[in-house]
């Protein structure tokens, strides 16, 4: 099928057309309804549909292509308060879901029914980023994705869905870069209200973590967008000069699910600011920097964050890039 996705901030609609009848009329899976988002994929006469109707973090439903009336949809995976459903991909022998749990993206693989023989792809680092590549061969048992972390250059991976084996197809080459010279950590800072805020931290392995290291803390926390721990080559210049680089996955993003976004917007926007401050205090307490060597950076909506933390706790930061 040719699938057409229409979307605004909080509402989506999908239409479909048999690929062998491109002159036919588009049919609607279900009409748009304010505040309801959904996205679908096809498998053997069935649409698998992820929707947030009565499910803040999305649930998985299914329905026959012949009758997509919403009253006929059947639940495959119920809403989970601790897991955000972010994507679906279908293969002849597998259904693949992209999820987010504890702030980390995950890949869930099952039989085509969505519930049998469930397994998760194992990732080699405590903090990382991936995105699906174009998996256009329906009969394949290979799932291709692009992987990276704060210290791992972009890597194209073919994972064998039957065995879980990773096959590295391509790695971005950076002159004289040796990943083994660097370390990555994932930790949690405790916010004012007790919420655990995830952090990703990278540094050169030879550093002595005694509070003497300059540290740059990056934050965003807006629009439900996630600041994932992906590889950015120019950061190596900082790490090689003795900096610690940290990302605070603060509220306002969707790192920990839809509620994470809602708890960092409008009248709850202050949580984004105090979460970031909690991350800064954690870094100081764990003796990465001293207050005199801690810097902060935020772009775009992260500039708002920088303005707020500069006014709330100016003594924490030596410098701020807004």
In brief:
The protein is mainly beta and 322 residues long.
Question: Can you describe this structure?
Answer:
- With 322 residues, this protein is mainly beta.
- It contains four helices and 21 strands.
- The longest helix has 16 residues, at 270-285.
- The mean pLDDT is 96.
Q: Please give the order of strands in the largest beta sheet.
A: 16-17-19-18-20-21
Largest sheet features: 6 strands, mixed
Structure class: mainly beta
**What's the overall geometry?**
globular
Report the radius of gyration as a whole number of Å. 22 Å
Mean of pLDDT:
96
Q: Given the structure, what is the number of helices?
A: 4
Question: How much β-strand is present in the residues?
Answer: 35-45%
Uncertain runs are none
Number of strands: 21
SSE order: EEEEEEEEEEEEEEEEEEHEHHEHE
Specify the helix fraction band: 10-25%
Distance between the termini: 45 Å
Describe how the helices and strands are arranged.
Blueprint: E1 2-7, E2 12-17, E3 27-30, E4 38-43, E5 46-51, E6 59-64, E7 74-77, E8 83-90, E9 95-101, E10 104-110, E11 119-120, E12 129-132, E13 142-148, E14 155-160, E15 166-171, E16 182-190, E17 196-204, E18 215-218, H1 235-240, E19 244-248, H2 258-262, H3 270-285, E20 294-297, H4 301-312, E21 319-321
Parallel strand pairs: 18-19, 18-20, 20-21
Antiparallel strand pairs: 1-2, 2-3, 4-5, 5-6, 6-7, 8-9, 9-10, 10-11, 12-13, 13-14, 14-15, 16-17, 17-19
Helix pairs in contact: 3-4
